[in-house]
Amino acid sequence: MNILLLFVFIPILMIGLLFLTNSMKTIRSIMVAGATALLALSIVLVILFLRERAIDPIAEMLFISSWSWYAPLNISFTVGVDGISVAMLMLSSIIVFTGVFSSWNMNMAKEFFLWYCLLSIGVYGFFITIDLFSMFMFYEVALIPMYLLIGLWGTGKKEYAAMKLTLMLMGGSAFLLVGIIGIFYTSGHVTFNLLEIANNLHIPIEHQRWIFPATFLGFGVLGALFPFHTWSPDGHASAPTAVSMLHAGVLMKLGGYGCFRVAIYLMPEAAHELGWIFLILTGISVVYGAFSAVVQTDLKYINAYSSVSHCGLVLFAILMMNRTAMTGAIMQMLSHGLMTALFFALIGLIYGRTHTRDIREMGGLMKIMPFASVCYVIAGLASLGLPGLSGFVAEMTIFVGSFQNAGVFRTVLTIIACCSIVITAVYILRTVGKILYGPVQNEHHLHLADAAWYEKISTVGLILAIVFMGFYPSGVAEMISNSIIPIIERLAGV
Amino acid sequence: MNFSNFLLMGQETGLIVVVIILFFCDIFSTGKTAKWFYPLSIILFSILTLWGFCPKPEGEAFGGIFVTSDMTVLMKNILNIATLLVFLQSYRWLNSKEQSEEKGEFFIITLITLLGMYLMVSANNFMMLYIGMETASLPLACLAAFNKHQEKSAEAGVKFILISALASAVMLFGLSFLYGAMGTLYFNDMSLTVLNNPVTIFGLVFFLGGLGFKLSLVPFHLWTADVYEGAPTSVTAYLSVVSKGAATFALIFALFKVFGSMDIVWQNIIWWLSVITITLGNLFAIRQKDIKRFFAFSSISQAGYILVGIIAYNAQGMTATVYYILAYVFSNLAAFAVISAVENQSGKTSIAAFNGLYKSNPKLTLVMMLSVFSLGGIPVCVGFFSKLFIFLAAASAGQYVLIFIVVLNTVISLYYYLLIILAMFIKEPEESAVATFKSDIYNRIGMLICVVGILAVGLVSGIYSYINSLNWVI
Amino acid sequence: MIKLEFYLVISTLMFFIGIFGFITRKSMIAVLISLELVLNAVEINFAAFNRFLFPHQLEGMFFALFGIAITAAETAVALAIIINAYRKLGNININDASKMRG
Amino acid sequence: MEYSILIVITPFLLFLFLGLVGGKLKPNVAGLIGTLGMGLCAVLAYTVAFQYFFNVGKIGESWSQIVPFNFVWLKFTDLLHIDLGVLLDPISVMMLVVITTVSLMVHIYSLGYMKGETGFQRYYALLSLFSFSMLGLVVATNIFQMYIFWELVGVSSYSLIGFYYQKPSAVAASKKAFIVTRFADLGFLIGILILSFYTKTFDFASLTANDAELVTTSFAGGTFMGLSLATWALALIFMGGAGKSAMFPLHIWLPDAMEGPTPVSALIHAATMVVAGVFLVARMFPVYFFAAPDVLTMIAYVGAFTALFAAVIAITQTDIKRVLAFSTISQIAYMMVALGVSEYGGHDGLGYMASMFHLFTHAFFKALLFLGAGSVIHAVHSNEMKDMGNLRKYMPITNITFAIACLAIAGIIPFSGFFSKDEILAAAYHNHPAIFWTLWFVAGLTAFYMWRLYYSIFWNGDKKYDGHHKPHESPWTMAVPLVILAVFSIFSGLIPFANFISSDNMPFYTHIDWKVASLSLVVAVTGIFVARMLYRKASTKPAEIAQKMGGLYTASLKKFYMDEVWGWVTKTVVFRYICEPIKWFDRHIIDGSMNGLAWVTQKSSTAIRGLQSGQVQFYTWFFVAGTLVIALLVLFL
Questions:
Q1: What digits encode the pLDDT tens for the residues B178-212?
Q2: Within a 10 A sphere around the Cβ of B397, how many other Cβ atoms?
Q3: How far is B408 from chain C (nearest CA, A)?
Q4: Is residue B74 part of a domain?
């Protein structure tokens, strides 16, 4: 029994248990117990991983197990993790855990949590597998619950948003599918196993030229790559709190992770040759998202565009293709996942009380709900890259790493990307200033309650994670950085 | 005459025996015993289905006009399962006031069409294929017109019989050319003499037209929606799954066995047919209001996917296609089980009738959801695997552009499948919404089988491996 | 000596005349009759091919025989369905059988 | 000297403690805890200073750099890593003293000034955060550590300016301060990136060692737009410093920052944070001098212009804190000029020493001015000069201490400002006469506007205050810091600074250049005299003069419209011409094309509905036609 399988089995077990019950109390206990178990499991995994890694510093992946599945097609179900996947699993667990508390008072809770568990199965499964087939399968498993989660429990133009989000992401996965099939046949030996393709096989460059864009684009859509990001504002704006958290916090990371693990890792030559096209697109994403966020008035739109900008930075750094930048990219994924989840948790909290997300209709919330407001400020500061919080270490690693590339093109792009930190400050402070500070805009808001205990758990949990990463980045960075070496070697070997 | 030939026709013989038993039961049953007729038919047919899984001899009979192999047995088994599922869904419809007198006819006619399909699958000669097709089509027209009191049903019958007759005429015309070009109608002999000349190509295209009618490929598809809408729901289910499956199998054998050496020609044709079939099916499906019509167009686009598997022209393509049909059987029939349950309860077949179904009938909704997810190719439903496998098969023949177009079409298809989900889960129910009800036990068994099929066939890889192991050499 | 080509020309003409009738006639019965033309064209084809090209065996002839038999069955079923339609529609104008569309 | 780390850690712990549980404490307790903690820091800082300057600092003839504490915090590459540590050398030790002293004074002062304010605990928590950041900044061992604390300083300044968060003007001011400095920090960051890309280190010691040899060699030859890359990098780094130190044209945030509580202005926006830019340039001085002398010249000119510019504005302002704010800008510009005109080593490096000297003295007298102003504001509940006057009778301690500070800033012998300013002027005199004369003129203006301020507050007629709002002397918590700072303001100029601080860390000997000193004294006295004439008694003369000056007066009053210019840039250019079009583009073009795809699909679906006509004969026609078309296509294509 491989410990990694537990990440899929626990949510399956939760689904099974949820089917059996109808009482709100039991549902909550199941979810809390399950989410806690997953969180504990992630921590255990981190510890085990570090210990194993100390014993075996060479192996690319640890905890590898493989079960033959579709033998005639040479498809097997293979799991394994390196430092990056461990980090992503940890992130997922934190967000799943906090998301449960953020959706404490859902109506139709049973159904909601069923879908929620399904979504987490997809997410966990994606991160534990190192087999393109199962990766793709879990990827789609993670996408489809979004439709119902947004469509049923969302707000606003939810049907439109849910449909748009699902179709655009599925459109992306169409590219991805073609790319994966291409990899399957062109690598020289029909196999989906990532490690095998990477280490023993080679995709000819003429095939890489079309497979690389297909896979990068496919994953990039989920990573909110310009110009395929428009699902994000509408989708996030309509989604319920926990779903926004999970989606922006983890699901969008699937995109970055996939670009990294599949597109770049397996096709280094094409990455060198065609990377610049996507580098421009991601560069645009970074600045464009930030500029768009400046003039939005809906809190969730602001955050969604901010995600476009931040996730753009992830892809941007991945395409810089050196160790530091890639480490930064993964750290940015973690950091963005945490802080954007925090944002969405707080926006949900605020929206649940004020029933508006329009920043022009709010004001002076700091006085009314100090706890939530302070958390919001912290989230904002993390987002604009304040040292001591996670955003800073991630962004700086990216910038320093990107700058290590020779060549005017990449240098100029890095400088342009750097500009986003100013624009980020503008929209974050604008939002904070409008909604938290100033006089109270609406008389009715005066009697609103501050965060309830379960909301406090979710926000404090996220803040602790953000602060931990901000204060002790080297632990995270080292774990990630070591896992990037094989990829860098492949890139350098070109 | 060598009677051992009939041993090779075990399944056909069994089917005929069942038909005869049912025929006599139907004739001699009185008012009291009539209620046992339905369970008896189900039991008999289930036995036949199960028996189909016993090992069978392989070989050619009647001078090579009829061939049986593990593959054909498997195909027939798939058809059997599908037919059984259709029977299970039809309980309430057959026991309704209007239909209760005609139960026997329904079973007997349906089983005879099934016999025709057996012959199509096992045909190793174009005449056999033709006879099988006609045996399958003509009773189907009766079935389409089975709701005698309904104008729609009558119209569906007319449309079906006329177009089907024309289609078979066109196919015959094609066959006559093939015969003229090669001098024989035996698959085995034809494959030796087939030449890429205009007469053969004409023959091939006309033949494809005839089969394309059964598969409802564009441009031979226009009857599909009307007949599906007008025919009784169980018949629609039968048409959309069993009839289509049989035609697919026949097409595979004909193309692979006979036209193997001119694969470039028919691959081109199939390439285009598949692209326009999927696209047009999708485009029509997105604005349908009636759920049966909706599934008609959905099944048209599914037919396009089937062609993607066939185009590979290798063992992998064959396996993927057969697997696809199996997946399609479970997925589509799950949907039709729900449709017929709702229709028999409320008499409505509009998509709007499904609005808010989740609130009143959550279990039905879940079955329907699994079904459309499977049709849309969402994991872990079997549809995901079957789609992926046909893509893999097509890619093994280098058809990346086709895959890309088809995969993009999946997105459109997902859109309309999600419309069903939207209606069931998200839309508020109308005033005259379907109330909470309990479906009959047979339908529930049927749904259960479908659900198990949808979930298990994909995850349990043994099924694919088994199909693949029927080492069918081209 | 009548050559094969003549048969083929005749049969092709019949085929398309039948199709034309099928497409243009308003009465369902007339449509059925047109269909017979189409099918008979095919039978001529088979017979002619057999006679001229492959005179040593009788496959084509047999096919033609089977074809005739099946055509007869087809016509019978079609007539039954048309009668059924007549009961529901009140006439046998093929244009009236177009309630379902779109 | 490992304990020096405690100077940095203590305020951080205080911040955590007060931030997390402060709300549960009584305000007084929280304030006291904060103050005592800061006191501890001050004691430690003095100990460190004493030990450094008199025990361990001097190795041979020169002052050494001691790194008692350093660890790798985040590793980017094998060469590039952010370390956190403590670097003790003359300027950082000097800064430790300045920061802890002023901070302690402000802590004590705030006990009285902020009494009864809501958020008292929060205030002290933020003060601790600021002290932590500022101390971390000055002891930074590498440029990235400095950047980290630079940002932290920015954010604590942001929070403190916006302390009265329900006041829209305070919120706007805090936002402005943060964004303007952030914009400058962008330059800083890019500068760091360029610098580190070539030198492969962030470490100050490595950068400056051996006449900045590393920088001059590693940059060999790279140019961009006609300037060497080293120049670019260092100019960009200076941009960061200019932002924090409110150099023209990035000064606009500082006057607005006066929206914060007055003690905060004293601590952050007068004595400590705003000189961070000066400190940065001083820290990197050898690099600037050897690798990019052009940038130093630019710094000098920017500084000179800013000094003049701010002084001219200060003359006309009526809000007393704004006068002080512009005075601060002007004085910091002095320091910048001093660095700009300085050369390296020995007496040539006079400017460097003068800059630090002025930084030192300025911190005390400017903090005193602000605290005095705070005391006045506390008494009359207004910032406007017109609400004041004749206060000397009500507030004697404030009056005297304020006068001392004014004398110091005006540069009257023997107050501290005289000595430091004199060195700056002397340094400029030899190298850049034009700059010297500008500064000389500014010195006169400084004396004038400071004494205008003084007279307007404390003299200017015999204004009566009615009973309820009768001004009174501040409580002892506020008075004591005033007195202490006054003592510093008087005597800190007497320290022989050149013995401790020099550009090459080698002590050298200075003397007062009497030619320069007398020139500056003359102009200062003139300034004071003019101010006395105009403002000692209530009169209409100032208004008449203002009338005569016309446009120049209005321009000065309106701060030469710099706020409007920047407002135009942000509101119009960025918001209206960049953001709004992007928003529109995103919604209509990008999103529109996605929706357009859906629309096209729907439309084509409707367009082909005619195919499904319901007519059997059409179906047949289509069937046969389709078959024939396919057959023909296959045959002929």
A1: 999 888 889 888 888 888 888 899 899 999 999 99
A2: 17
A3: 24
A4: no
Of B127, B139, B180, the CB nearest to C66: B127
C93 reaches D (C-beta below 8 A): no
* Alpha-carbon distances, residue D344 vs A445, D212, D273, D447 (angstroms): 62, 12, 26, 31
Q: Quick check: B1 pLDDT over 70?
A: no
Nearest to A170 among B380, B400, B414 (CB): B414
β partners of residue C29: none
Query: Which residues from B are below 8 Å from D602, CB to CB?
Result: 286-287
Residue from B364, B363, B384, B365 nearest B375 by CA: B384
Question: Could you give the CA distance from residue B20 to residue D420 in angstroms, rounded to a whole number?
Answer: 120
Q: How confident is the model at residue A408 (pLDDT cuts 50, 70, 90)?
A: confident
Look at chain A and report how many structural domains it folds into. 1
Distance CA D88, CA D139 (A): 6
Burial D13-23 (b: 16+ CB within 10 A, else e): ebbebbbeebe
What H or E segment, with its residue span, contains residue D58? strand D58-59
Rounded to a whole number, what is the distance in angstroms from the first to the last CA of chain D?
A: 90
**Chain D: nearest CA to B205, how far in angstroms?**
6
- B440 touches B91 (CB < 8 A): yes
Q: Which residues of C15-51 are buried (b: 16+ CB within 10 A; e: fewer)?
A: beebbebbbebeebeebbebbbbbbbbbbbbbbbbbe
Q: Is D286 helix (H, G, I), strand (E, B) or coil?
A: helix
Shortest CA distance from D189: residue in chain A: A418
CB nearest to B422's CB, from A137, A159, A181: A159
Mutate to test the interface with A, among D121, D174, D189, D595 (most CBs of A within 10 A): D189
Rounded to the nearest angstrom, the minimum Cα separation between D84 and chain A is 11
D467 falls in which pLDDT band (50, 70, 90)?
low
Number of domains in chain B: 1
Low-confidence winner among A225-239, A278-292, B331-345, D449-463 (lowest mean pLDDT): D449-463
A494 — pLDDT class (breaks 50, 70, 90): low
Is B386 part of any domain? yes
User: Cα(B223)–Cα(B245) distance, rounded to whole angstroms?
Assistant: 18
CB contact under 8 A, B162 and C28: yes
The reply to whether residue C19 touches residue D617, judged by beta carbons under 8 angstroms, is no
Domain of residue A165, residue span: 3-492
B289 is a domain residue: yes
A376 vs A382: CA distance, rounded Å: 10
Q: Give a yes or no: residue B128 inside a domain.
A: no
Rounded Cα–Cα distance for residues D405 and D374 (Å): 14
Cβ(A196)–Cβ(A78) below 8 Å: no
Please answer yes or no on whether C23 and D621 come within 8 Å at the CB atom.
Answer: yes
Query: Which of A485, A482, A490, A461 has its CA nearest to residue A52?
Result: A482
Q: Give the contacts of C4 (CB within 8 A, at least 6 positions apart).
A: C48, C49, C52, C53
What mean pLDDT value characterizes chain B?
90
Across the interface, do B154 and C77 touch by the CB < 8 Å criterion?
A: no
Chains B–C, number of C-beta pairs less than 8 Å apart: 125
Do C and A touch, 3+ Cβ pairs within 8 Å? The answer is no
Tokens of residue B188, six digits = 């085995």
Domain assignment of residue B423, given as a range = 259-474
pLDDT of residue B472: 64
Distance between CA B123 and CA B119 in Å, rounded?
6
Architecture (CATH level 2) of domain C4-101: Orthogonal Bundle (1.10)
pLDDT at D197 over 80: yes
Q: Which helix (H) or strand (E) holds A80?
A: strand A75-81
Rounded CA-CA distance C39/C31 in Å is 12
Chain A residue closest to D84 (CA)?
A471
pLDDT at B471 (0 to 100): 64
